[in-house]
Design goal:
The chain has 149 residues and is α+β, with helices and mostly antiparallel strands. The chain has a domain at 2-74 and 119-138. Helices cover 42% and strands 17% of the residues. The strands form two sheets. The protein has a five-stranded antiparallel sheet. A two-stranded antiparallel ribbon has the order 1-2. A hairpin with a 3-residue loop joins β3 (79-83) and β4 (87-90). The protein is globular, with a radius of gyration of 16 Å.
Amino acid sequence: MICPRASLPQLTGLTPLEIQFLWEQPLRHVTTPAIAGRELFVAVVAGFLRKLPVFDVMQWQLVVRRLAESLREADSNCLVIILDGRWVVWTGSSQLLDITTGEYVEELPYPALEHVSYNLGELFRRETAKFRQRTVAEAPNAHCQPEHV
């Protein structure tokens, strides 16, 4: 899917200021007015993480920035796991991110009691399908298009 930057608030639920954060941080290399693939994946994940009550503003932004740095492409098998509301790890990461300090740790100081995982690939598939259905019904050809177009 290719999505114009102007459609990102409707797709992700992010505010214009939060989208500006994406453009200045994890997506700073994007120079086109529309995004697809890995970049769109990062934007959808950012919108999701922002809504999780476990994260404050700085924490979800930290996780998005670090996750974006490690992604080479949109990954349909990417999982993110939150342990005890403090440590975060994702597919391909060999260390845990402590969201209270911003530091990586090799292992937890004690076994985690709580493990919450999210399949980000499935999240992306569902969110883009839902958005595509909604926009086609409202105004065909006005928003995001399949990537092969």
